[in-house]
Amino acid sequence: MSTIEQSIAPPDPVAPDVRDKDSGRVVVRGLTKRFGSCEAVRDLSFTVEPGQVTGFLGPNGAGKTTTLRAVLGLVLPTEGSATVNGVRYRELPHPARVVGAVLDAECFDRRRKARTHLRICADAIGVPRTRVAEVLAVVGLGEVAYRRIGGFSTGMRQRLALATALLGDPRVLILDEPGSGFDPEGVAWLRRFVRSFAASGGTVLVSSHQLAEIAQTVDRVVIISKGRQVYDGLLEEREAVRVRCTDPTLLVAALARHDLTDVDTTPDGALTVRGATTTAVGEAALEAGVVLHELTRAHTDLEQQFLALTVSEYQPDTPAGRAVQPSTAQPEGAR
Amino acid sequence: MSAPALEMPTYGARSRRALRDLVRAESGKTFSGHAWWVLLSVMGAVDLVIALFATDGGLATYEADILGYGGGFAALLGALCVTAEYGHRTIVTSYLIAADRPTLTVAKMVLAALVGAGYAVVCALLIVLGMVLRGNHPLAELASVLEVSGAAMVVFALWAVLGVAVGTLVRSSVVAILAVLMYQWIAEPLLVLLVDFLDNQSDPDAITQYLPTRSASAALSRLGGGTSSGNAFEIVQPWWVMLLVFTGWVALASAAGIIRAQRRDIT
To answer: Is the pLDDT of residue A328 over 50?
Structure first.
């Protein structure tokens, strides 16, 4: 491919942001999608930055898949826009070389062999067929290249779908509910893969209906509920620290001196400190002169907050942020 | 950055390369399945049998008459090129790779047209074989036979394109197959009867000969030296007019298919 060819921007009626060109940035602006009278997504706006893994969270039916399909040009937005590199997906000159997407593991003609399927896709993308063996090796399916897809397990089809997404060597990776169908080993592998993809400058958007599934992988989360956005921010901001010590009262006082006042007592006598790091709490404990029995990051607290964000209907459109603080949080320590 | 004057041809070249890549992928899809040779076998067998038992007459005339009815098989192949993708949901992957949907539809049409033309060649050979086995001399009408075969390639290619359009519009394999077969063998004949019934004063064929199936077979029959298509109706127009009429129908259906696909949500 010549450099001249790559330098040409296609005509774009969405008024592209020139700063987004070749950035690998995914921008969703005021996205609304109605299917008939059913409103799947309403006024969604968020940006997915390169070099990070962004989680896209929401309960089943919240509009995650619709949003991802709008980003990928499969669904036409009723209002608003979704762009990759500053242009709409359908106007990307070589979309599969920019974005790799895994939507579900059932998009295969099961009579075809894995290799045949990938060769067809490589031809369509316009990459050499040597890419087929490469991506099969990446996802660990090299051994079954000549087997029919019909004989594959769901996990193997997930890997094949990922291999398909990687054929064009994309900079942006979009995964819809990748956890379903993977065995625990596969999930761990996918986590490492996604982390290294982002670490090498790639953009990753991964959806899930379970926070626990992606909490260890993502840097940022966008949370939606009933088609509306309820949170967009860094994951750390949502985290809490669980601490048990000899004298909780002294520790609370010490924490207050560090402006860490959002503290709850759990029934088993431990404290949950929100918006804190384990380091800060440890230092406060040293100041207070208390003995620590336990000091962990409490992801379950995050899960509780996620549920609180997504369940109630009266959530405002603006990010709820720290306003939502369920008092019934019962952290059980890091998994 | 290149000058604006340079961009247009480069963009055009890129489109052509994208189309070529997609046609190559479409051939991989079609020839990795069974539909293409199953349809070809059935059609070839039918044509051979008809040719063996045809009544006396000129070789080219019968070749044309028989081929006139075979186009439906090419349409079925074209339709299946699209509906199989919806059936297996591979259309999702196809649209992710070819985000510009009209280009993908055109790629399917190009491939279907090429395969359709191939069908015509095989069928023409089988029909000639059947007639020769009956005692006709193939070289006697060689020029006409070649003419009819060439035109059949064009007509079959158009049928295949029509099939892609139908498949794009209806998406379901079963519905597409029924739509093509029922239109060709039931709906259009009924329509002819209806026009005949409503208007028994003037010649009903004046209108109905321009219907898709009739115009396609009339083009071949007229070229083959016949003045009537399967003795069904009088052909008054030259063959190329009928071919243009059929092309018009195909263009109409293709435009409808491309426009429909452009706005469709893949959920």
So the answer is: no
Residue-wise pLDDT for A257-267, tens only, equals 888 888 888 77
Flag whether B1 is in a domain: no
Output phi, psi for A259, to 5 deg: 60, 25
Exposure of B52 in the CB half-sphere (CA atoms within 13 A): 8
Q: In chain A, which among 21-40 make CB contacts under 8 A with chain B?
A: 35
- Cβ of residue A111 closer than 8 Å to a chain B Cβ: yes
DSSP A148: B
For residue A116, pLDDT beyond 90: yes
Tell me the nearest-neighbour CA distance from B27 into chain A, angstroms: 9
Contacts of B18 in chain A (CB under 8 A): 126
| A112/B contact by beta carbon, under 8 A | yes
First to last CA, chain A: 48
Q: Report pTM.
A: 0.82
Give phi and psi for A122, each to the nearest 5.
Answer: -60, -40
> Which residues in chain B are contacts of A5 at CB distance < 8 A?
10, 14
CA distances B101 to A26, A149, A164, B105, B246, Å, are 21, 26, 19, 6, 25
* CA-wise closest residue to A33 among A79, A72, A89: A79
The ipTM is 0.88
User: What is the mean pLDDT for each group of 10 consecutive residues in chain B (267 residues)?
Assistant: 42 80 96 94 90 73 79 94 95 94 96 96 90 79 87 95 97 95 91 81 74 87 67 72 95 96 91
Over its C-alpha atoms, chain A yields an Rg (Å, rounded) of: 23
pLDDT of residue A109: 93
Chain B residues within 8 A of A75 when measuring between CB atoms: 265-267
**Residue A128 touches chain B, beta carbons under 8 Å:** no
The domain tally of chain B equals 1
CA pair distance A113, B87, nearest whole angstrom:
17
Q: Does any domain span residue B202? A: yes
CB contact under 8 A, B93 and A121: yes
Q: Which chain A residues are closer than 8 Å to B17 by Cβ?
A: 126
String of b and e for B94-108 (b: at least 16 CB within 10 Å)? bbbbbbbbebbbbbb
Question: Dihedral, CA atoms, A75, A80, A81, A82, nearest 10 degrees?
Answer: -80
State the residue range of the domain holding B258: 13-263
